[in-house]
Amino acid sequence: EVGVLARHCSGGLILGFSQAVAKHVVLKPDTAREASAEDVSFASPWNQLEAGILFALRIPLLVVCEQGITGGVFDPGAGEHYVNHIDLDLLDDERHGLALRSTIHRWSSDVWNHYRAF
Fold it and tell me: How big is the CA angle at 66 (ends 62 and 69), to the nearest 5 degrees?
């Protein structure tokens, strides 16, 4: 169903907010890079699926996530999309809002160009 709907989109917005928190987690177990971490937040696994489908369809993506959400689509440089980590405590800060608005403006231009290409 996500794939069917995505074919009718000219842009995608992925919102990565904490859906689960692990008090203690082992990362990359049984490898040379094994590490442990405390209070790790995880977004919805659906974020990765939806972003992957939109990316495969070459639809402009804007990824917005709260601080502490990482992995896959939320990692900077993970793909040709905008990733904007936001601090929920600073949403009212004008400088923080300006950076987000600037990113949205660039992404919306890409969305408009994709829409016109149809």
Answer: 90
Q: Is residue 82 over pLDDT 90?
A: no
Q: Which pair of tokens denotes residue 83?
A: 């990733």
For residue 83, give every residue at least 6 positions away whose Cβ sits within 8 Å of its Cβ, in sequence order, or none: 63, 65, 73, 74, 75, 76
What is the signed CA dihedral for 103, 56, 41, 87, rounded to 10 degrees?
0
Residues 12/48, Cβ–Cβ less than 8 Å: no
pTM of the model: 0.83
pLDDT beyond 90 at 60: yes
Mean pLDDT of the chain: 90
Longest C-alpha distance within the chain, in Å?
49
